[in-house]
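ok trying again, last paste got cut off:
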Amino acid sequence: MFDIILSFLTSFLLTFFAIPSIIHVAKVKHLMDDPGERRAHSESTPSLGGIGIFAGVLFAIILWTPFDHFQGLQYILCAFIIIFLIGAKDDILPIEPYKKIVGEIIAALILIFKSNVKITSFYGLFGIQELPEWFAVLFSCFVILVIINAFNLIDGINGLTGAIGSLLCVCFGTWFFLVGRIELAIVGFALVGALMAFLKYNISPAKIFMGDTGSLLTGLICSILAIKFLEVHLSGPSTIYNFSSTPAVVVGFLIIPLFDTIRVFIMRVIRGRSPFQPDRNHIHHLLIDYGLSHSKATLVLLGVNIAFIAIAYQLQNIGTFPLLLVIIAVATFLTAILFFTVRKKRIDKAAALKKQKLEF
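nice, full thing came through this time. structure:
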């Protein structure tokens, strides 16, 4: 218990005191994120906050993790470093998307083959239990990549990725503590400490952004905890803290980043565009266009994610597939209401501007 608290405090304090120096260096060296058409900020802002998050998390994990109880920790830290290098490079000098994906795949394969961060069962979903080894590897790599990039894609307004990442790591970290997996709880709460320290500087008006360095690392850690959550249910002893319908529960936990990413990709494909071509149809963009501030939009999405976690917890006994259907149906319904409301608002605004131009 004390190791978990100490990991949180160590990560928090190191990140909290490192970020002002990072802000100063970024301004002196002009390493700033400039406003643009798709940007939600109006002033040039440093985007290297992920360096402080990475330093806090790495230091806290190395200092407080019981290495004798955490086989494979060194490989997880290797994956952290790969993701850090990719993110830092992209924050300073943007790189091609395929290069980022290649680096993420390398990090994922290290986790899968060296640290056994791997999904081995579908829990009876679609009648499938244990997965063939080759499929387990491919599917696990796919899941890790999706979660990493989902957090990267929701990092579009102040506080959102930090808030959602903190919420998920508190949930996963608490569960791992309750079932005796202290080493995984330390990883989760180390990230919580770093993200909470970062949020002090990221809440509007933001003094710094986490950039790809922070969002990719947050996604990587959440993917590790989510997969381990699934696997501990299979391999660990049965306890009063075990969930039913575990895969659906994980989807409920990760609903904001996962659903938003999949929804946006599907919409782009339907419109005949590349799924990787950016636009302003993410849920956080819709909330901003609806008229909410960054802080209010973040609080709304945080509240929605908490509600989905509660739904998953309360309905876990109805079965994996029915629970998945409920979660997806509710998410689709809520998003559709927001989308069509904002669409109407955009059309009305465009018509008003057109009329104003004609009058002049």
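cool. The chain is about 70% helix and 0% strand. The chain has one domain: 2-359.
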